[in-house]
Amino acid sequence: MRWPRRAAIGALVTVDTIEIQRVVDIEDDNWWYRERRGIVARELRRIGVPGQAVDIGAAGGGNTRVLMEHGWQAVAIDSAPAAVDLCLAQGIVAYLGDARFLPLPSATYDLALALNVLEHVDDDRAAAAEIARVLRPGGTALVAVPCDMQLWSAHDVALGRVRRYARADLAGVLEGAGLRVERLWNWNVLLRPLVRWRRHRARYCEDMADAPPVVNELLSLVSAVERRLPVRSWPGVTLFARAYRPD
């Protein structure tokens, strides 16, 4: 089945074109995007044999490229035309689509990424149901969301988020869609106190994505140290889930 690259589907997540371009400009070197891509790469190695994948909320396609580099046949979906254009310019197959109404056939994909998508969706259960719909039986979903409403700040409002998630909330949304959660873990546990202080000291401040080079490398080092510590069940800044569609 051939799908139009510019399906006429109402956009749900409004992302400013300048912000998308900013992400593209910094994500190859920035510690946060680099470390998140590392998480994706490690999960891909755990999955093993590559197959068909969809990256929902792909933005500039950084995670889609990780999929492709690991041998996956990947499709990018985003609700922002600018994001779709950026993906297409890089040779990524990309479609304009709403997370609640993915322009994709059912039971087709072995893997679905939805990284920092659900928190922007009013009806996150509908988006989770779409993830389950497009996955083949046995297919894997890798989801990331911001963790804990105690960290809610003007930063979340500026990014267009609707909520942050507790572990039970995310598990409930995924399981309500018919997925089975294999694992839940927190990320940026060690940096949580700094993030909380920084985001609440003013009405709005830029995220640490804009850190100077020395600070960028220091934050990357902290993240590397965290990977070696048994802290993934502790409160963090981001919550990850790996789930699958039952046979």
TrEMBL record:
It comes from the Bacteria. This is Methyltransferase type 11 domain-containing protein. Keywords: Methyltransferase, S-adenosyl-L-methionine, Transferase. It holds the Pfam family Methyltransf_11. Residues 54-142 form the Methyltransferase type domain.
